[in-house]
Design brief:
Layout: E1 9-10, H1 41-57, H2 64-77, E2 84-86, H3 88-97, E3 101-104, E4 107-112, E5 115-121, H4 126-130, E6 137-141, E7 144-145, H5 151-158, E8 165-171, E9 179-184, E10 186-189, E11 193-199, E12 202-207, H6 214-225, E13 233-237, H7 246-256, E14 262-268, E15 275-278, H8 281-284, E16 305-309, H9 316-326, E17 331-334, E18 342-349, E19 353-363, E20 379-380, H10 448-457
Parallel strand pairs: 12-13, 13-16, 16-17, 17-20
Antiparallel strand pairs: 1-4, 2-19, 3-10, 4-5, 5-6, 6-7, 6-8, 8-9, 11-12, 14-15, 14-19, 18-19
Length: about 475
Amino acid sequence: MKMGKPLKQVGLIGVGMVAGILLSVQISAIADKETRAGLPVEELRTFAEVFNAIKQGYVEPVEDKKLITNAISGMLSNLDPHSSYLDADSFKELQVGTQGEFGGLGIEVGMEDGFVKVVSPIEDTPAFRAGLKAGDLIVKLDDTPVKGMTLSDAVKRMRGKPKTPITLTIVRKGEQKPIVVTLNREVIKVQSVKSKLVEPGYGYVRVTQFQENTGPSLVKHLSDLYKDGALKGLVLDLRNDPGGLLNGAVGVSAAFLPAKALVVSTDGRTPDAKHQYFASAEDYLRGSRDDYLKNLPAEVKKVPLVVLVNGGSASASEIVAGALQDHKRAVVLGTQTFGKGSVQTVLPLPGNTAIKLTTARYYTPNGRSIQAKGIVPDINVEESANGASPERLREADLERHLINDKEKEATAAPKSKDGKANGKNKGKEEDEKSELPAPAEFASKSDYQLNQALNLLKGLQIMQNKP
């Protein structure tokens, strides 16, 4: 759902969520290198002159720390959409968020044209239940206009004690009037894995986000599904999964792939950015914990498998879909994914701050780059029977996104052919306050893509979408 210009900034910001499309959290110190690039003396002299001019002549006094922090933030934010400076609060949120519990509304946001733009709501959070959508512009927080705020200021206003309310005024493409919705802040506890037996003999597992506990949780859910006997087929749902931790993605892939199979590789400028990750304990475990995949039912390695994806599937979920697709372990069904194929490394700095720096691209086992393209499903099935899927923000829509080095002309997926996909109302007077529609419910009887996945597993004909 495009609205205005491409996002100028997409950050890991608190509103209660770990970075939605963060591939990996590699907490590593900035080590001294044997050789360092020579510093650009002339440019640094210019920087010092500008710094001094501001200190001496700006209309109000400015602290040195603020000027330096803003300079660091500017350096990073102008590289690509996923590199950023993390102040103490954001860095703490990142560390807490990867454990699956944090406070806020449950949305990842960025800035566009001075407004806060929703990148993705997290499932089962206040924002998701209220019906916020990717592409929504938040123009007012309570009675305060967002225009003129920094992203950090807006985020701090949206944070707060659990059970306290905040009113958001939202502008949505296709809606003539602003949408006003009041949310109650919560401590967000993201359930990483969900499952159910959708029909006798057919299991369903959904990964909502890749966290530290995703692998062990997946094994528990699969074991529960196998308690009543072997399955005839399994659906792995990665739709709207914004990503998360790399080792979580490797662990989920390893659950379905043969031991030692290549899952993903990364390539960057430095030696430690060049790496291959395999379906082996040393690549999906962190620390000296027991190998959770030892408890996996043996039948999981061979059960017929369909992976569901859509434009909200990003980063770590694209790694899993790409690995299972390349090894021909699963049929990928749905719509083209988000296309975030870059690795972010978190480098701690003094003062409990850090930088999140894009250090590499990642590649599927067959050497495909997903950057700015995404995973193309083996079978394209839109989200509804009439051939419509909501328009979604994708990596290729973001300003300064990295190019796909394997396919230079990779672009965003085509928009839906259905002109009504944006929910535009015609010939009707609207109320002063529009209401947000209920969010789509996955794994329900009306879940069109899931029903087609089950048809595929049963050997039945898939109903092709018709616009």
